[in-house]
Specification:
The complex is a heterodimer.
Chain A lengths: L4 H5 L8 E2 L2 E2 L1 E2 L10 H13 L10 H20 L8 E4 L2 H16 L5 E5 L8 H10 L2 E5 L18 E7 L11 H10 L3 E5 L11 H4 L3 E5 L10 E5 L1 H6 L10 E4 L4 E3 L13 H17 L1 H20 L4 E4 L9 E6 L4 H9 L3 E2 L1 E3 L4 H7 L4 E5 L6 H18 L1
Parallel strand pairs in A: 3-15, 5-6, 5-7, 7-8, 8-9
Antiparallel strand pairs in A: 1-2, 4-10, 9-10, 11-12, 13-14, 14-17, 16-17
Chain B lengths: L2 H4 L2 H8 L12 E6 L6 E8 L6 E9 L2 H14 L4 H5 L3 H8 L5 H7 L1 H14 L14
Antiparallel strand pairs in B: 1-2, 2-3
The chains are: A alpha/beta, B alpha+beta.
Chain lengths: 405, 140
């Protein structure tokens, strides 16, 4: 099945406006995606017809609100093929999901002599929490290296001993590399380690099946997959979640509170202290519906085509260095540098033509150090991206060269 | 504003031919700093005159965008001959006026990176005040 990006674009109100008199070419979806009207309408409808605090109210409106939240949880469960909705914990974003695991599992299960294995590709969200928890517990931290194409080198894995955690992204936000998470999960389990998967950059673009991955924890952000900001979820294996301490304390996460002691609530409430992001969850549910109606396979194919086209266009420009693997092994992300022109300046020139790209370290400073650069330009594509926008990207890159050379 | 207006000639000139480029040997004050948004880096070093207060020589090195590097180059011309406390009190607007193009908040951070690092260097050497965005960091 092939998707029609021109048609899908009409669902996104953001594209109805112009910048500097030009249509918006939004090539920064890896940072955050735009929102279709269906998501915005679902949230507005929830606020207008079903809003009250969830779970504790006995009146009909509160039950309607609770239903909205729990329907969204069921959609999230189905979306990642989890075996039970109680394994879906709503959080603010993937960063919070990964911190939850690092704090609640890591602080209580790591100690001196243990090794936490992350990768050179990691976003800071799946790197800094582990670095911090390793330091707090006396565990060691090591990085699985990448090769020249930005792909993980799994050939040296057996040199690592006493591995307790393997944490990696499924898709690199900086280079678009699609990692073999299933292999990492299997390898981790052979050694009695857990495997933590950051799927923030994967879930919008490829089918994420937590059971097929064999992961122990999978983190997803809503805002990168057409949903609102402020909502994401952690999927975790129930047997691990049940044995973990809570992350945040407060209302809703308790079973019984007394002056002397508090006992924890059931899953997923144990990890959802405080008032939930209800309308955001409803919006996420609508985003999942939208993605399923377009089809994840169609989205993945569309992005592969765009990535191949962009790599083709950019490679014809003298002085352009491209990073990352070939298009068949990457998501719709293209990272590059222009010789003699800093990424900020490339992005500034592109902005003049209403082309939005990201310029910076993409929250991946260990990877930038490995590549020997401070920053790169990153163009990223989604289901609403059309080839004409990539032509405008290439034209702007040429213009930036002319300006500076 | 077109690209040509934004990257006006004086900025491209400072970017391509930075003034005072290089780290001074036997500097009296020295600091390096990063822009956390983009990872750009600037190193600044200073030598004072006989009064121990007036900036006689200033040098910088860095990697970054045209705005951050050109702004730091322009800064070295502004501060030479001024005292440490004068420079510590130098408002960022004076540098931004010199740059002379409208900058978004993100690009202002680029433009004042060198100024911030210079103030850190002076703070270390002379105890002059730090700008807000550099407070709370470890400069021991």
């Amino acid at each position: 099945m092939k998707l029609d990006a021109h048609k899908l674009r009409t669902d996104f109100p953001i594209f109805e406006q112009t910048f500097h008199g030009k249509p918006l070419a939004f090539l920064d979806s890896a940072a955050s995606s735009q929102k279709p009207r269906q998501v915005l309408d679902a949230m507005t409808h929830f606020y207008e017809t079903s809003y009250a605090n969830v779970h504790r109210g006995v009146y009909q409106l509160a039950e309607r609100a609770t239903q909205g939240l729990e329907d969204a949880r069921e959609k999230a469960r189905a979306f990642v093929n989890a075996s039970s909705a109680r394994e879906i914990i709503f959080v603010r974003n993937a960063t919070e999901a990964l911190n939850l695991v690092a704090y609640s599992w890591g602080l209580n299960n790591l100690g001196p002599g243990d090794l936490v294995l992350v990768t050179e590709l990691e976003h800071h969200s799946n790197f800094v929490p582990w670095q911090y928890v390793a330091r707090r517990t006396g565990a060691e931290l090591a990085l699985i290296p990448v090769d020249d194409q930005g792909e993980l080198r799994l050939d040296g894995l057996d040199a690592y001993d006493n591995v307790k955690v393997v944490a990696s992204g499924l898709v690199s936000n900086a280079l678009g590399t699609v990692n073999d998470s299933a292999a990492l999960a299997a390898w981790a389990h052979e050694r009695g380690a857990i495997y933590v998967c950051d799927a923030a950059q994967a879930a919008p673009h490829v089918r994420v099946d937590v059971q097929a991955l064999g992961a122990d924890f999978v983190a997803v952000s809503g805002h990168k997959m057409l949903g609102p900001s402020g909502i994401g979820f952690l999927w975790g294996r129930a047997d691990l979640l049940l044995r973990m301490e809570p992350f945040l304390m407060g209302g809703h996460m308790i079973r019984k509170v007394s002056a002397g002691e508090t006992t924890w609530g059931e899953l997923p409430a144990k990890f959802e202290a405080g008032t939930s992001p209800m309308a955001e969850a409803v919006g996420l549910g609508a985003a999942i519906d939208y993605l399923e109606s377009v089809g994840l396979e169609a989205i993945e194919q569309h992005e592969h085509r765009l990535a191949a086209y962009a790599l083709d266009q950019l490679s014809e420009i003298p002085g352009v260095t491209l990073y990352g693997p070939p298009p068949d092994r990457r998501a719709g992300i293209v990272s590059f540098n222009v010789d003699g022109v800093h990424p900020h300046d490339v992005a500034q020139v592109l902005d003049e033509d209403a082309v939005c790209i990201r310029a910076g370290h993409h929250c991946c400073q260990p990877l930038m150090a490995k590549l020997g650069v401070a920053a790169t330009n990153r163009a990223s594509f989604y289901l609403y991206t059309i080839p004409e926008e990539i032509d405008r990207l290439a034209a702007g890159v040429r213009r930036s060269r002319e300006l500076f050379l | 504003m077109s690209d040509e207006q934004f990257y006006r000639e004086v900025i491209l000139d400072h970017y391509k031919n930075p003034r005072s480029y290089g780290v001074l040997e036997h500097a009296d004050a020295h600091a390096e700093g990063q822009n956390p948004l983009c990872g750009d880096e600037v190193t600044v070093s200073v030598k004072f005159g006989d009064d121990g207060e007036t900036i006689e020589q200033v040098g910088f090195e860095g990697r970054g965008c045209a705005i951050s590097q050109a702004a730091t180059s322009m800064l070295t011309e502004i501060v030479r001959g001024r005292t440490a406390s004068q420079v510590a009190a130098l408002p960022k607007e004076e540098l931004l006026d010199e740059i002379g193009i409208p900058l978004t908040p993100a690009r202002i951070k680029c433009a004042i990176l060198g100024l911030g690092v210079l103030k850190v260097a002076l703070h270390r050497a002379k105890g002059t005040p730090l700008p807000d965005e550099w407070q709370g960091m470890d400069f021991a």
